[in-house]
């Protein structure tokens, strides 16, 4: 069992119903009292609700895992995306400052445009391609303005879990329903199991010196095509699928979406791996997720 340590006993979590929020609850250290709030219980876009939650619970640390993550829908719902991803971040940061506690805020590789051939460093220049990435970048900027480097902004990517909607569960469903699939092969990233990310966040809670903007994903890189092929292979080996279907590689241009996506937004995790311990390769994590029976 992971321990929070460093005097952290009471943690206030926003975004309880998301993939990461669910895993953070599953992996809660025994010594931690966790107040996990869903959007219906505390909407981070509403300042009064965030303030009231912090006032009622009096946490030692706040984790903001709440976010507007509908990448394509954000293009037509920019006001809502910014209300949650920027203004919500402001409200969490202001609550942390008022109560003199640390904030751990989860961000995304979508703050980058994915145009460079080498992994992005934590201090790389942000250049988002769409509303989702821009709203998350704005949230990062506001947290730094309010809390300086005392907060931990942890960027991640391609998150999946046994809980909620995600690429892995969608692929498993389509592979059982269809006779073939075409999957984008020219977008590169690092698939990340939410359970491993949650465990890393709990380790980060124990290290208050781990702050500023940092990165965490599982090790290795893949295209969506690579990821899909691995999902089918692992699922067949585990008996989760009864047959193999052909999977073709298609360009992103053949699957147009309202929002542009980074072509190669790989994050450099060397600092976080050195501090928190290295993550497993994404293929190993995928195998673990597929053998995890605790799902919704």
TrEMBL record:
<dbReference type="Pfam" id="PF04321">
    <property type="entry name" value="RmlD_sub_bind"/>
</dbReference>
<comment type="similarity">
    <text>Belongs to the dTDP-4-dehydrorhamnose reductase family.</text>
</comment>
<keyword id="KW-0521">NADP</keyword>
<keyword id="KW-0560">Oxidoreductase</keyword>
<comment type="pathway">
    <text>Carbohydrate biosynthesis; dTDP-L-rhamnose biosynthesis.</text>
</comment>
<dbReference type="InterPro" id="IPR036291">
    <property type="entry name" value="NAD(P)-bd_dom_sf"/>
</dbReference>
<feature type="domain" description="RmlD-like substrate binding">
    <location>
        <begin position="10"/>
        <end position="292"/>
    </location>
</feature>
<comment type="function">
    <text>Catalyzes the reduction of dTDP-6-deoxy-L-lyxo-4-hexulose to yield dTDP-L-rhamnose.</text>
</comment>
<dbReference type="GO" id="GO:0005829">
    <property type="term" value="C:cytosol"/>
</dbReference>
<dbReference type="GO" id="GO:0019305">
    <property type="term" value="P:dTDP-rhamnose biosynthetic process"/>
</dbReference>
<dbReference type="GO" id="GO:0008831">
    <property type="term" value="F:dTDP-4-dehydrorhamnose reductase activity"/>
</dbReference>
<protein>
    <recommendedName>
        <fullName>dTDP-4-dehydrorhamnose reductase</fullName>
        <ecNumber>1.1.1.133</ecNumber>
    </recommendedName>
</protein>
<dbReference type="InterPro" id="IPR005913">
    <property type="entry name" value="dTDP_dehydrorham_reduct"/>
</dbReference>
<dbReference type="InterPro" id="IPR029903">
    <property type="entry name" value="RmlD-like-bd"/>
</dbReference>
